[in-house]
């Protein structure tokens, strides 16, 4: 019996849980289809193959993370608060999303330090754009000193990826949290005008 069509959010949330549990290599399309109470053939109505499902699932999870941070930033009016909220919420998000955190641990290449190896570069460019937009707002409001917004956004995002790797992918305990706090303080003091 064929199951009725499911929405993509249900598909990707379920796939995320299964990939998080077993990792990409040990997860089969049958595992995900069984969790969705459908046949493997029915699952192929949504994706081409396991690799396509994985890429779309990870893109869904990264976009969900990004959208959550963007909503929290948008709720703030002051560019200083936007910057602080963006930094804190972006880093702390993974503490509450065990599935995405586990996928990143299984597959750290999802979040590489260098752009040329980034399979989700378009999604990450949107994160850099969020940072750039906050920087431009802050400079216009004269609460941030003048910087090259494009380059500074790339630097901040690179440091952010490094911190994520140290805190969640290759955890180093409290030392990584302290590094994040020091980085945030450094950016705030170096970025904000006196």
Features of this protein?
194 residues, mainly alpha, 9 helices, 73% helix, 0% strand
Task: State which percent range the strand residues make up.
Answer: under 5%
Q: H/E series, N to C?
A: HHHHHHHHH
Instruction: Tell me the number of strands.
Output: 0
Going by helix content, strand content and strand pairing, the class is mainly alpha
The description of the largest β-sheet is: none
Contiguous helical run count:
9
Q: Give the overall pLDDT as a whole number.
A: 89
Describe how the helices and strands are arranged.
Layout: H1 8-26, H2 29-35, H3 40-43, H4 50-74, H5 79-96, H6 98-106, H7 121-140, H8 149-169, H9 174-191
Folded structure, characterized:
With 194 residues, the chain is mainly α. The chain is built from 9 helices and no strands. α5 packs antiparallel against α7 (121-140), α5 (79-96) packs parallel to α8 and α8 (149-169) packs antiparallel against α9 (174-191).
Summary of the model, kept short:
The chain is built from nine helices and no strands. The protein is mainly α.
